[in-house]
Amino acid sequence: MTTLDVDTVKTFVTIADLKSFTRAAETLGTTQGAISVKLKRLESQLGHRLIERTPRRVRLSAEGAAFLAPAQELLGAHDRAVAALSPVRPRRFSLGIATHVGGAEVPILLARLHAHDPALTIEVRLEDSRDLLDAFDRGEIDAAIIRREDDRRDGEMLATDHYGWFATPDFVHRAGEPLRLAASSPSCGVLNIATRALAAASIPWTETFLGCGSFAVADAVAAGLATSVFSRRLAPAGTIEVSGRLGLPALPPSEIMLLSALSDAKSRAVLKTIVGAFREHHRMPANRAAEEIHTVTEVVGS
Question: Which residues form the HTH lysR-type domain (predicted)?
Fold first, then answer.
């Protein structure tokens, strides 16, 4: 009877989840060489090739696809067995992600965190940067990914974001009339940037739509009710950048920051996973990002 090594099974599941030897090695805190050795050991034990690897992609073989679900169940049973006799309470990690920051990388980020520690309970909070900053300062969340507010200099920079004015192609703004704006809340930092830019350009504006959350604002803009400012990564479907057509001022770039006061080794490993996933997604080509999002959706939905 074949006895499986939990570590090699975890290596296989991590590769299968991330579709990458490089990212699996980063997640598990080891090298690609060690990952390959463990996978070959498992394949030798089972007598089947589980992963098919080419220079362009990593995918499951037919045997690997059949083995994946039982392997995940094995790891889950192992974690539950260890936790049952452990005096340590299950770990929880609360992460705030600003609505003007989080986009397509969020499901990828969550998948990476789960692969890093399947027993970790992840609590995600989506709010404006200012609200998350206040929650972080009150100790309500462990970490926050936000747009840099004011002159606050703490935290680790993850990426630079660029903003624009977006509206539907048929949105009309008549000269002399106030520009119709949509915003999620009066305290929204992105709205403050927009209104300061309009004031400097002597362009009058009016708040046409005040919604609860950025999704409501996106719906209002997509419906043609108003214009608003969005990260160029997160503009609503069916909208276009209209600053040139409407004579609107350029907007300054914004830094995306990770805030955390956690210092223990396990938490630092979680934060390293967050930083790696976020930075990698922001520098990857759009077509590769779309492929990875599709892959993560398949894994999460399976």
Answer: 4-61
CB atoms within 10 A of CB 24: 26
pLDDT digits (tens, 9 = 90+) for 11-27: 999 998 888 898 888 88
CA 49/CA 39 separation, integer angstroms: 9
Q: For residue range 85-105, list pLDDT tens digits in order.
A: 766 555 788 888 887 777 666
Instruction: List the structure tokens of 212.
Output: 């609860």
pTM of full prediction above 0.70:
no
Written as one string, the DSSP assignment of the chain is -----HHHHHHHHHHHHHT-HHHHHHHHTS-HHHHHHHHHHHHHHHTS--EEE-SS-EEE-HHHHHHHHHHHHHHHHHHHHHHHT-SSPPPEEEEEEETTT-STHHHHHHHHHHHH-TTPEEEEEEE-HHHHHHHHHTTS-SEEEEE--TT---SEEEEEE-EEEEE-TT----TTSPEEEEES-TT-HHHHHHHHHHHHTT--EEEEEE-SSHHHHHHHHHTTS-BEEEETTSPPTT-EE-HHHHTPPP---EEEEEEE---SHHHHHHHHHHHHHHHHHHHS-HHHHHHHHHHHHHHHH-
- First-last CA distance in the chain: 29
- Per-residue pLDDT tens over the stretch 220-254: 888 888 898 888 878 888 999 999 999 999 988 88
Domains of the chain (ranges, CATH numbers): 1-88 (1.10.10.10), 89-161+253-302 (3.40.190.10), 163-252 (3.40.190.10)
β-pair type (92-98, 143-147)? parallel
157-209: pLDDT as tens digits: 888 888 899 999 999 888 788 999 887 665 567 777 888 899 999 999 988 76
